[in-house]
């Protein structure tokens, strides 16, 4: 039987890209992140924080370990926030092309990626939540092959004009919503561990 | 204090149109349907039945009454089933226009409306589920002002070429996915009550 690593935090997710992005942040701070690749109950909400918190609590309850859960979405201004919390389903069905089509001839291409990282220390514990946001715009064509989801059409404001999908994982982690939320969590977590 | 009506079934929903459509079917069979207009926890799933069953159980648990919950979605073939279980969010953000835009120049306009009606008799009881489906196509423009959601762009195969939004509630109830699922439930329910 394997002994679980001490102080390991588990990421409940079935998205390997998400895990690898998060793990890079954790490793940079000397922390381990273990992938808990299970199907956890997910609620419908227009609030990413609620979705992430519910799933973190659910997983901590069912697997008895400290869990983080991350929920993210692309919110396009001219589409009233669509695809938002349902970005993953929109990606699987209409894809990047669908978003480009909905924005054909639309001048306002402003969009933001948002991420909510919820942490639940164990069963019957209250979850905490950390959010990250990256402003940017929707490109006029798909560009790049790194990352996942809507990365090929999102150009972060803080970058050099490349889409997320044109960046390596390390570059994306400099600007991304997910990296910002993960770093907030890691900072809090290290402080909490130190004061124990 | 008001006495609750005997044998009343409660529909947990915040959509008054949905309630009025369902109520018409119930009344036609001599049954009463009460609107339970509360916010009930909703799960994310690509399976309407799971969403409806979870919400019916949740509401029966929390309000202690026999509850039905209905979840519906428009599944467009050429869009890989989009907007599907997230139709309500897609309607609020990109609307009928968004769907028409995604289908501009697309020849295959085949679509189906699906409905899942879940019934939970009370706390700690297992929910049952009844489904209804209506095949049709997406119109090339919005037509009509009745109904709600994507009704102005859906033309049922069984009809006369009008969209759901060009029909009265009674006409829509002849063809609609929701009416089919509700009638299945009512038929089962009347049998169950009789055999008590």
User: What is the CATH architecture term of chain A?
Assistant: Alpha-Beta Complex
Order of helices and strands of chain A: EHEHEEHHEEEHH
> Counting H and I runs of at least 4 residues, what is the number of helices of chain A?
6
Helix content of chain A: 25-40%
CATH fold-level assignment of chain A: Maf protein
Question: How would you portray this structure in words?
Answer:
Chain A has 196 residues and is of the alpha/beta class. Chain A has a single domain (9-194), classed as Alpha-Beta Complex (Maf protein). Chain A contains six helices and seven strands; from the N terminus they run βαβαββααβββαα. In chain A, strands 1, 2, 3, 4, 5, 6 and 7 form a seven-stranded mixed β-sheet that branches. In chain A, a hairpin with a 7-residue loop joins β5 and β6 (128-138). In chain A, α1 (16-28) crosses α6 (177-194) and α5 packs across α6 (177-194). The first copy, chain A, is globular, with a radius of gyration of 17 Å. The A-B interface holds A 41-46, 51, 79-86, 89-90, 92-94, 98, 101-102, 104 and B 41-46, 51, 79-86, 89-90, 92-94, 98, 101-102, 104.
Question: Quick gist of this model?
Answer:
The structure is a homodimer of 196-residue chains. With 196 residues, chain A is α/β, with parallel strands linked by helices.
Features of this protein?
homodimer, 196 residues, alpha/beta, Maf protein, seven-stranded mixed beta sheet, 6 helices, 35% helix, 23% strand, globular, disordered N terminus
């Amino acid at each position: 039987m394997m002994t679980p690593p001490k102080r390991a935090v588990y990421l409940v997710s079935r998205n390997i890209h998400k895990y690898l992005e998060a793990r890079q942040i954790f490793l940079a701070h000397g922390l381990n992140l273990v992938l808990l690749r299970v199907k956890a109950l997910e609620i419908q909400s227009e609030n990413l924080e609620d979705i992430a918190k519910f799933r973190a609590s659910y997983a901590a309850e069912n697997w008895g370990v400290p869990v983080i859960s991350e929920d993210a979405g692309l919110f396009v201004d001219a589409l009233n926030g669509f695809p938002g919390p349902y970005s993953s389903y929109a990606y699987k069905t209409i894809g990047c092309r669908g978003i480009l089509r909905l924005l054909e001839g639309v001048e306002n291409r402003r969009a933001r990626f948002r991420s909510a990282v919820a942490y639940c220390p164990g069963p019957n514990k209250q979850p905490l939540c950390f959010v990250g946001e990256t402003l940017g715009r929707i490109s006029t064509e798909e560009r790049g092959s790194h990352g996942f989801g809507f990365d090929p059409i999102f150009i972060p404001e803080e970058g050099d004009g490349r889409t997320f999908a044109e960046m390596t994982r390390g570059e994306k982690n400099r600007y991304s919503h997910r990296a910002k939320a993960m770093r907030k969590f890691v900072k809090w977590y290290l402080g909490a561990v130190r004061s124990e």
